[in-house]
């Protein structure tokens, strides 16, 4: 096992890179033109049960406002979200996922589910459970340090 002995962040980074590469290829094959960063923002907007303000997304995604604005602009250009003024505060923009955005998320979910099944082939449920337990502990330890 060539990963053994490497720092945990390096191993996780390599794993995430490989998974991201496969997901990007699958999205491209299905002609879904979206970056993983755009997808993350689209998903975050869609998961929010209340109206989503631009500035809230900047905080949630851990990015500065200008980076979020560029992402929102790209999602709007692709007709995946619309930006409207908040009726209570016209200085505030609210983000709403369009029907096209919802359809895209549905397709991506199908692709991700199939990819997840392939990634977990040959791995026992016990090992999967252990993985998630360890990942949660590592995440918790990292949060304590930040």
Assembly state (oligomeric): single chain
Spatial order of strands in the largest sheet: 1-3-2
Number of strands: 3
Based on secondary structure, the structural category is: mainly alpha
Largest beta-sheet characterization: 3 strands, antiparallel
**Succession of helices and strands:** HHEHHEEHH
Mean pLDDT equals: 90
Our estimate of the beta-strand percent is 5-15%
Tally of contiguous helical segments: 6
Helix fraction?
Answer: 55-70%
Explained architecture:
By secondary structure, the chain is mainly alpha-helical. It contains 6 helices and 3 strands, in the order H-H-E-H-H-E-E-H-H. The chain has helices at residues 8-29, 36-47, 54-61, 65-77, 99-119, 125-145, and strands at 52-53, 81-85, 93-97. The chain has a 3-stranded antiparallel beta sheet with strand order 1-3-2. The chain starts with 7 loop residues before the first helix and ends with a helix.
Question: Topology of this structure?
Answer:
Blueprint: H1 8-29, H2 36-47, E1 52-53, H3 54-61, H4 65-77, E2 81-85, E3 93-97, H5 99-119, H6 125-145
Antiparallel strand pairs: 1-3, 2-3
Helix pairs in contact: 1-5, 2-4, 3-4
What would a concise description of this structure say?
The protein is mainly alpha-helical and 146 residues long. It is built from six helices and three strands; from the N terminus they run ααβααββαα.
């Amino acid at each position: 096992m060539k990963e053994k002995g490497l720092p945990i962040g390096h191993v996780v980074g390599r794993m995430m890179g490989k998974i991201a590469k496969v997901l990007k290829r699958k999205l491209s094959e299905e002609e879904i033109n979206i970056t993983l960063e755009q997808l993350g923002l689209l998903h975050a907007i869609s998961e929010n049960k209340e109206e989503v303000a631009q500035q809230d997304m900047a905080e949630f995604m851990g990015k500065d406002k200008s980076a979020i604005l560029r992402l929102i602009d790209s999602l709007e250009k692709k007709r995946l979200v619309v930006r409207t003024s908040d009726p209570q505060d016209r200085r505030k923009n609210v983000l709403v996922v369009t029907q096209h955005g919802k359809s895209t998320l549905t397709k991506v979910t199908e692709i991700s589910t199939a990819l997840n099944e392939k990634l977990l082939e040959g791995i026992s449920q016990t090992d999967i459970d252990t993985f998630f337990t360890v990942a949660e502990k590592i995440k918790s330890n990292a949060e304590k340090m930040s």
